[in-house]
Amino acid sequence: MRIALALAIAPTLLGQNLVGQHLVGPLTYTKGGVVLAGRTTPWRAVASIEECSDVTEYANKQPADTAAAQFELGRWCRERGLEEQAAQRFARALELDAAHEGARCALGRAADLVAQRRRDLAPLPFADWCRDHAMVDEQWATLVAALAKDPYDRGAIARCKPVQERHCGETLLRPPFAGRWLRLVDRTGHHQAKCFAFFAIDFTMVDADDQRHRGTGKALTDWYGFDQPVLATADGVVTAVEAGFDDNPPGKAGGFDEANYVEIEHRDGELTDYAHVKKGSVTVKVGDRVKRGDVIARIGNSGASGLPHLHFTMDMTVYAGNEGVVIGRPYRFGGCRLVEVDGTPCSIELRAARPQEGWVLECSPPAK
User: Fold this and answer.
1) In 132-218, where do the E strands start and end?
2) Are 243 and 280 in contact (CB under 8 A)?
3) Whole-model pTM?
4) Which of 355, 357, 354 is nearest to 26 (CA)?
5) Which residues of the chain are in CATH 2.70.70.10 domains?
6) CA-to-CA distance for 335 and 349, rounded, in angstroms?
7) Hey, how many other C-beta atoms are within 10 angstroms of the C-beta on 258?
8) pLDDT score recorded for residue 198
9) What percent of the chain has pLDDT over 70?
10) What confidence category does residue 116 fall into, taking pLDDT thresholds of 50, 70 and 90?
11) Burial 15-38 (b: 16+ CB within 10 A, else e)
12) pLDDT digits 0-9 by tens, 64-84
């Protein structure tokens, strides 16, 4: 993994020759541009983006030689899977303060205290206590158990999502469509109310003027996305299919459990889900192997959907003991272009990026 900020001449954009920057590393996105290493590059000055972890981030950290500072860096490392570095920092914290509670718990030297806190605290406060004591496995198991009991538990969801955000899916995905598509803004927050959907995206097709339909939009065929092909985002095996529900007229949503969909399993148990597809359009069955870019269905308006669009997400089933629950997993798209961000035109190659609300993506049809 690497971090880089290189300069190159980007293609002409809006009639101007721009110096395009190729941004590689842990990236964040703002209305004004892309943030890398504390520096914001305006959208129009970016040529490509590639999200990845940064191994230099740990090396650049220079904590004070105090028990508290060493422990906090150890916790940071453990949350990112740097176990060897974490153990070194916890050990140093104990050298500086032999009674440091967090370091003792993090190194497994306070089993009686952990057992007592588990008895005394309710599940979510216990998860917070585990987080504060760098016990990430115990924290995660507690959250999974809570969500297995109630996948709509807002407290558990609020704690679970940041944990998941640190571990993006290993499978790089291509967008599940070809053409020009807008990621809709989840204004109602309905995706965030479900642990299996908090990384979900609703995509709708738009024209060059960002219009979603021609004419009045009262007919399904007025919508540019309706009946467009839905594409597999990566190689995998079909694990679930529903194809028999009717499509709703625009503006009239059906029931949550009345959506047609396809589910595909990829490596390491990662699942992608494609929902609200058109009745009778599914071209695959359970057990079929599909390739990246294969047509698996067509865009429809079935289920809890008021306009033709594609609900897309990645998730996986995780367990705490014998209790399992489907939890959303962050993912990255590659092999397409970002052409607009909240109304700001740009021309950016997406090599690997988490698609954001308000982005307009353009993707070529898969090669035959």
Assistant:
1) 172-173, 179-183, 201-205
2) yes
3) 0.89
4) 354
5) 172-333
6) 7
7) 17
8) 93
9) 94
10) very high
11) eeebebbbbbbebebeeebbebee
12) 999 999 999 999 999 988 999
How deeply is 157 buried, as exposed, middle or buried, from its count of CB atoms within 10 A (0-12, 13-18, 19+)?
buried
Name residue 347's amino acid.
S
Measure CA 278 to chain center. Answer: 25
- Tell me the torsion sign for CA atoms 271, 299, 205, 180: positive
The tokens for 314 are 């990645």
The pLDDT of residue 11 is 40
Most confident of 16-25, 249-258, 286-295: 286-295
Residue 22 DSSP class: E
Beta carbons of 310 and 202 less than 8 angstroms apart: yes
Contacts of 278-284 with CB under 8 Å at 24 or more apart are 278/226, 278/227, 278/247, 278/302, 279/243, 279/244, 279/245, 279/246, 279/247, 280/243, 280/244, 281/227, 281/243, 282/241, 282/242, 282/243, 284/238, 284/241
Look up the CATH number of domain 172-333: 2.70.70.10
Helices and strands (DSSP H and E) totals, the chain: 8, 21
| Residue that has been written with the tokens 């303060």 in this structure | 97
